[in-house]
Predict the structure.
Amino acid sequence: DIQMTQSPSTLSASVGDRVTITCRASQSISSWLAWYQQKPGKAPKLLIYKASSLESGVPSRFSGSGSGTEFTLTISSLQPDDFATYYCQQYNSFPLTFGGGTKVEIK
Amino acid sequence: EVQLVESGGGLVQPGGSLRLSCAASGFTFSSYEMNWVRQAPGKGLEWVSYISSSGSTIYYADSVKGRFTISRDNAKNSLYLQMNSLRAEDTAVYYCARESPGRIYGMDVWGQGTTVTVSS
């Protein structure tokens, strides 16, 4: 099984900050990586697919990069609506696996 | 509007069974692959099961293999998860999620979730 490791698990930041979340895969997944945002009591929302493609309707301050085993999600200027938990997920092979999540908190 | 609506969750005793349903609308259900994903209280996301658009290919997480069965009825635009031999560790919110044809875009549409509680 492919293990997905996210860091940090918690991140404290202020509105306007540039934020970077890292996701590492235990083996190469090419670019088959998605990023999701989840707010309390809500379903996850797709932000990025194929490592760097922005889902329709997602603000351009979100961006993804990487391939192989190292990936990053960047929020260029954190907005109040962005305080949430973020998950990476590989869909290179089954079983599909998620990272442990990164909670972005208000500093 | 593209929508997935789960139902069927509830309180069940250990060893019991439940059948979850996911009703799809606003898109051609038969063209899309589907997943069940769960989230235990206060925990992260865990993939549970996948079914191809035709139903011919199915995968399960090891944690549910042999106990859960995924199925779909394309004529009824519905996805199902039959859960047997339930354990306390199956307690979670269960989401159905759509995958694009060819599995290129990740899980782009999610339901609101249905809560399963396994407890005596």
